What we know:
Chain B: Its cofactor is [2Fe-2S] cluster. The complex is a heterodimer of chains A (about 400) and B (about 300). Chain A is α/β, with parallel strands linked by helices and about 400 residues long.
Amino acid sequence: MPDIYLDNNATTKVDRAVVDAMIPYFTEQFGNPSSIHRFADGVARAIKKARSQVQELLGAEHDSEIIFTSCGTESDSTAILSAIKAQPNRKEIITTAVEHPAILNLVDHLEKEGYTIHRMPVDKCGRLNLEAYKNLLSDQVAIVSVMWANNETGTIFPVEKMAEMANAAGVMFHTDAVQAVGKIPMMLQDTKIDMLSLSGHKLHAPKGIGVLYLRRGTRYRPLLRGGHQERGRRAGTENTASIVGLGVACDLAMQHMEFENTQVKAMRDRLEQGIIEQIPHCFVTGDLNNRLPNTTDIAFEYIEGEAILMLLNKAGIAASSGSACTSGSLEPSHVMRAMDIPYTAAHGTIRFSFSRYNSMSEVDEVLKVMPSIVATLRKLSPYWDSVNNTPVADPEQAFQPTYA
Amino acid sequence: MWDYSDKVKDHFFNPKNAGAVEGANAIGEVGSISCGDALRLTLKVNEDSEIIEDAGFQTFGCGSAIASSSVLTEIIKGLTLDEALKVTNQDIAAELDGLPPEKMHCSVMGREALQAAVANYRGEEWKDDHEEGALVCKCFAIDAVMIEEMVWANKLRTVEDVTNFTKAGGGCAACHEDIEAILEKVLKERGETFDPNAAPIEKVEAKAEKKPLTNLQRIKKIEEVIMSFRPQLMADGGDVELVEVVDKTAYVNMTGACNGCQMSSMTIAGIQQRLMEVMGEFIKVVPASQMPAAGLVNIKEAGHA
């Protein structure tokens, strides 16, 4: 069996149709879209088409609300830095404790520069308290930035409602929708969302292309100043081939939206149920009733995630983990910590994320190998009683190592 | 994913001596579930000869933690306790053909479990002597706690000070922003302000111990260190020679298989690390091809003179 790729929240395979659409913009139509000769005559038109394809997927009112960037991180940085530059008297930012590092590391940095950062906590299922959110909104807040869907657990935040609350309080609202675009139907023109980030490589377009949606009329300051590209809102020669590719990818995402929410979801559910039934002492993290259709994050207690990934990799299966070791830090994922997942489980979380390229037979293959992988590692674990095949009684008591 | 050596993978996929040894009379438990690494080492020690007759491990941790535990049990079986105590974490890492810098703490954990087990056998109490922080310098595997302690203890003021005392920041330099943040924090606690242009402080202890080297002595010593790398390189069909020393920069020629090979930058980093250890000062090792033109002329003239 060929290798099985279940790490689609990390990145996705570029769709063949996307690659085919891109090739001419490297070879024949390689001109600068700002030029007027025949090497460029189709390029500006192709970008215009791609812009309308993105507009369509997002349900934006105008195509000029779509600004092409280099990645999701650039879109996030542009949005937040724009809001604070445009409103220099507002010194507070509201976000959540479970955002992507593209947001969290940026606001940590702004905190050092004197901004007050409100990082809203989540409950054990990864949900926000909207009452508490309401109390934070004030005329001191420059921007609210809340992710549409969490990259680790797939948990969906009520961003449309939160944007309305922000709007009512006169506060700008940005959402990092990198994981949500293409999986959740959107109609931005009916919302109060002012800015939205998306990343091409999460929806079968190439890496190195992103979008910032900027609602018409939202006060804005560019991150990159220079040429007139993107109407002067993001200077720099257009990444033409990737823009064309992203347009096609958005088209395909529209066509597969229903498939994503039925077939892909069915694969995810079968894997999740199979694992929970077959393997003791594991549980699904996040808000189970309100998740992306393609994501499941399962905590395997008393073993460590990187070790699980290495054995999965050996079996030809790709997934990812929230363990400390996979990132080189000492703490497990901030998302797991924010949900108060115990350390015995947080280090053993594995995220399986599907795409339309996966199949049920792949799910069965994972279900075949997963129980023995977990059993192998538990045999090595000081927190596991191999004789009785249960965790040692009161693991925190039975094994109390010297802190090293 | 990490770039693990084949030996790490082998010990992970086929761990040796997994599980607790029956009738163990020396048990060492180290690590912490919060950090995602914990290890219980069980030994059976012959009470007459103090030879470790059997060793077993139980590890909660990543691939390299399990591999380090496994290789540790292989190394120490058959050794006496005193011999086993001489095993360093570098020995463990070397036996695995190296570990990524972020993972060196796995080998440290192995050595600590061994110390704890021996202490347990001898009825002593073993105390961990260091706290571990977030990794700052990836070139030399130096963490934030270590840097902060050194900044406090030695009243360090600049990034260069930190590099001179801990090696942190002496490689790729990408962590200088983080080191500055630590300096800012500690200096603030001391009631001072961080000035990136402050003059570096003298390394007092090194001076007190011995007289400063003459220029010639210093260059000879640098050459000695570089020569010590030759047998290893020649075995791989390469070679290295010292070309020139200008202030804190040593220019070297890498030849043969080393020249242009991917390993050459790693080798240079290794030489630089050893040089700094031996010389007790910050020294940068640079390929002679990157020597400023004026320096080249000088050498040529000196050679023909």
